Amino acid sequence: KGLAPLETATTMSNIRKMLEPHQLKTDSVETERILTVLDETIAKLEMGSLIPRIITSLDRFADTLGPEITSSLMEHKKLSNQMETLLSGLEEGDTARAEEQRGRLNLLEQRLKCSVRNVLRLLLANPLLCQTLKYGVWERGAPAEVFLKAFGEFQTFMIERLLTSPSEEEEKVQFMEDISLRIKKNNEAITALQAELAAAIQTREVEIRKRDNSIKDLKTSMQVLTEDYKVSIQQMKQEGEKQQEAELQAAQVRCAALEQEIKELGAQFKALVLEHRASELALRKRKCRLEMEIVNWMQKYDADMGQKQAEYDEINAAYNKEKAQLSVLMEKHALLLQEYSQIVEERRRCQEEKERALREEIARNRAATCIQAFWKGHTARIFVKNLREKMAKSKKGKKGKKGKR
C-alpha cells in the first residue's frame, strides 16, 4: 500500500514518455514543409483575427502602420461594411432579386478575401510591426480565440504524428494495449475489492444489530438503576435537610461572633486612622522641609554651575588660543622638517657622489697599476729578448772568427 502511489507516479511518467514523440528533428523535406506551412498558417490566423480590432483602433495605429497598410485596411473596412449591408438586405421572396444579390455577394466575398490576403501580406512583411500589434491590440474575439486554440491543437497533433516514426507508432499501440489490459485487470481487482467491501459492510451491519440489542439491554438496566437511585436520592435529600438545619444554626452563631469582631475591628480602624493622620501630617511637614532644601540645593547648584561654566569658557578660550599657536608651530615644524629632509637628501647625494668618485678613483688607480705592471713586464721581456739576440749574435761572430783562423 505504501508503494502504490510511487508505482502509480512511475507508471504515469512512463506513459507520458511513451506518448511523447521521440524524434526532435524532422527526417524529410516534406515534413519540414508541412511544419512550415502550419507555422505560417498560425501566424496568418493570429494576424487575421487582429484585423477587426486594428480597424476599430485605426486612429491609434495609423502612425505605426504607415500609409500603404492604412489605406489597405480602410479598403478592407469599406468592403466589410458593404458585405454587412448586403447580408442584412438579402431578400428571400423574389428569386431573381435574390439570385442577383447572391452573385454580388460572391463577388464581394472574393474581393474581401483578396483584401485580407493583401493586408496579411503587408503586415507579415514587417515582423516587428506584427509583434507591436500583438502586444498593442491585447485581445481577440471569442470565436477567433476558439478557432486559434482548435488549430493549435490540430498543429500539435500533426507535429506528433509527423515526428513519430512507424516503429514508435507500433510501440505506442502496443503500449496502449498493455495499458488497456492493465486497466482491465485493475477493474477486475476493483470489482473483487468491492465485493469484499460489501461483505465487510454486511458483517458490520450484523455487529451493529448485536450492539443495538446490547444497548437496549443496557438501557433497561439503566432504568432499573434510575429507580433505585431515586429512592437513594430521596433519602440523601432528607439527610441533607437535617444537616442544613444544623449548619444554619451553627452559621447564625458564627455570624454573631463575626459581627462582634467587626465592631472591635471598626474601633481599631478608627484609632489607626487617627494615628495615621498624625503621622501623615508629620510626613507632610518633613516633605515641605525637604522640598525647601532641594530648592536651595538647586539654586546653589545653578550658581556653582554658572561659575564652573565661566571658568570653562576661560579655559576653552585659552585652549583655543594655544591650539591656534600649536597649529602655527606645527606648520613651521612641517616646513622645517621638509627643509631638514631636503638637507639630509642633499647630504646623502653628496656622500654618494663622494663614494662614487672614490670608487672610480680606486678603479682608475688599480687600472693604472695594472697597465704599468703590464708595460714594465712587456718592456722587460723585450729587453731580455734583445739581450738574448745580441748574445746569440756575439757567439756566432766568435765562432766565425775561429774558423777563419
What this model shows, in words?
The protein is mostly helical and 405 residues long. Among the domains are: 27-165, no CATH class; 318-357. It has helices at residues 4-19, 29-56, 58-65, 67-88, 95-124, 127-137, 142-162, 166-404.
How do the SSEs run, as a string of H and E?
HHHHHHHH
Mind summarizing the main beta sheet? none
Instruction: Choose one word for the global shape.
Output: extended
Radius of gyration: 64 Å
pLDDT < 50 runs, ≥5 residues: 1-13, 15-26
Query: What is the end-to-end distance?
Result: 150 Å
Residue share in β-strands: under 5%
Number of strands: 0
Class per helix and strand makeup: mainly alpha
What is the arithmetic mean of pLDDT? 78
Number of helices: 8
Proportion of residues in helical segments: over 70%
Give me a quick take on this structure.
This protein is mostly helical and 405 residues long.
